[in-house]
Design a protein that fits this description.
Helices cover 94% and strands 0% of the residues. The protein is an all-alpha fold.
Length: 100
């Protein structure tokens, strides 16, 4: 009869330990869910920085810079065309003047 009591005591101790382990596991799962959400935001921020993705304001700023650069290039091209045209007209006029 003493052996049976020992088995019952061990069984209750084991059940208590099992219950305590289950509680710890559920607490860890809850903590893991909360921290994984925070970690997810941190990971996304880090990925954005690593991949050098652009934000909307940076994109607008780059668009303005590109627009200004395009206008500058177009102005240089227009000046070159006008200058080349004037030089060509002058050269043709000089050649015609030599022969007549």
């Amino acid at each position: 009869m003493i052996i049976i009591n020992k088995d019952k005591n061990q069984r209750t101790e084991t059940e208590a330990e099992l219950k305590e382990l289950r509680e710890r596991l559920s607490n860890l799962e809850k903590d893991n869910d909360a921290t994984s959400e925070k970690n997810m935001y941190l990971i996304f921020d880090q990925l954005i920085k690593d991949k050098q993705l652009v934000t909307k304001s940076e994109l607008n700023r780059y668009e303005q810079k590109m627009h200004a650069l395009l206008q500058e290039s177009q102005l240089k091209l227009l000046k070159w065309i006008v200058g080349t045209g004037i030089s060509t007209i002058g050269a043709i006029t000089a050649i015609i003047g030599l022969f007549y």
